[in-house]
């Protein structure tokens, strides 16, 4: 299969990171698409959790929000939001958190709060929601974001959720026992933190993408690992699964036009 | 004991200028009709509290009813920004908005502390994050047993909490099903509470799995407002209008189109107008 978009490649590459044994805290948008493609292809028994309280959900269409009725209808069970954050997330029962963000830095810290000074922001973003504690309490974190100079920045104006902080052993020094971000999946390549410095480095490049494109689209001087592989192209099954769920979702969300 | 009254009476008796007001609902069961009644009755200087202020709080902020807001995620879920909220924070229109920002985990814990009549909540939170630098209400405590340093936030104690639910019986006991969010904690943390419901029935039974009952004696007022959560939804009664949420982006982007929308759909409307949304069948996945 050769005809696919960069966003499709990103979503499918992210889906491949997940396995049947994962208990995954799912963010809305690209993470939600990736997690459900995983569930509908190679990881049918994966446990998907949305912060609205739905546990083990199997939505037929992607939710527009984290609390769509579809998620509750198809969940194994539904709990209150305080229970979700106290027992399940803080209790350490979630293996994988899947986050996105408006901005990321070279140590995988994320900003979804403000661009510019906090008191006089140039752009006021929605804020952290569940992310600050998802980032510190899940066993490990995957991040999906399109690679762009606006998003991948040298210095964040605000750290909404900590990735590897200032790098190195910063997480351990703060008492965190979880791994933090282990993979960042973009539309052009996949990044991993360097084992020592924790700086994000390119480990896999998507088909048809050049190193120059990656360098041009990143806001810091991006490094490449010693050995860089080519991301396998999407299979027919992966691509069809993603396109099917996107088509069903679009139809469902635009369906009640008379209401608007 | 909850009084069963009209929505106008419930808001008139229980929501006062300057109040700390929580209108909760985690995507599901958002009390839109009650929020619109607050706007129609001209309440001002409200301090709004909510984990996920979405379109309803965008509307209250846009009409200038709010002096401040405590929140943890202020966006239009799956769509993008809340333009009236942004206009207030970025340009002080129609008035400046004082904000106190938290994470979801902290807000959920703070409501629980309020419900439990404790002064503060503690959590393993905000590690390495910048919010504690800009919010003086995020502090820390040291565990007296292990020495671990934990985050601490003050309990939330609203003057009034407003929620929407599926059913009440004639005594005012309320049943909630589906995604229950933080509604129980928000009601129990508040001094006064209003619950709008889809139906008033003789018997709540049989409650379904996952259902939640708030007893009459823990609630101040119950009002029958079918469709009162639209464009949010009431599980088992009608679905969320995702198209409305998508459409709101354009309406709210512009001050004039927002103001015209409020006049037509809130100021010149009444609670009964929500009833037209009540009868829609809830669409279930095949």
Architecture overview:
The complex is a heterodimer of chains A (260) and B (286). Chain A is α/β, with parallel strands linked by helices and 260 residues long. Helix content of chain A is 27%, strand content 20%. Chain A contains 8 helices and 14 strands. Chain A has a 10-stranded mixed β-sheet, with helices on both faces. In chain A, strands 6-7 form a two-stranded antiparallel sheet. In chain A, a hairpin with a 5-residue loop joins β6 (103-104) and β7. In chain A, α1 (6-15) crosses α2 (30-40) and α2 crosses α8. The longest helix of chain A has 18 residues, at 236-253. Chain B has 286 residues and is α/β, with parallel strands linked by helices. Helices cover 29% and strands 24% of the residues of chain B. Chain B is built from 9 helices and 15 strands. In chain B, the strands form 3 sheets. In chain B, strands 1, 2, 3, 4, 7, 11, 12, 13, 14 and 15 form a 10-stranded mixed β-sheet that branches. Chain B has a 3-stranded antiparallel β-sheet with strand order 8-10-9. A two-stranded antiparallel ribbon of chain B has the order 5-6. In chain B, β3 (46-50), α3 and β4 (66-71) form a beta-alpha-beta unit. In chain B, α3 (55-62) crosses α4 and α5 (104-115) crosses α7 (183-189). Chain B is globular and about 55 Å long. Residues 281-286 of chain B have low confidence and may be disordered. The interface between A and B is large, with 69 and 69 residues.
Helical coverage of chain B, percent range? 25-40%
Number of DSSP strand runs of chain A: 14
- Strand residues, percent of chain A: 15-25%
Please report the number of helical segments of chain B: 9
Number of strands of chain B: 15
- Estimate the global geometry of chain B from the Cα principal axes: globular
What would the average pLDDT of chain A be, to the nearest integer? 94
- Residue share in helix of chain A: 25-40%
Oligomerization category of the chains in this entry = heterodimer
Task: Tell me the β content of chain B.
Answer: 15-25%
* Pattern of helices and strands of chain A: HEHEEHEHEEEEEHEHEEEHEH
What order do the strands of the largest sheet of chain A run in, or round the barrel if closed? 4-3-2-1-5-10-11-12-13-14
Instruction: Considering residues with a beta carbon less than 8 A from a beta carbon on another chain, report the largest interface and each chain's count.
Output: A-B, 69 and 69 residues
Question: Would you identify the regions of chain A where 5 or more consecutive residues have pLDDT less than 50?
Answer: none
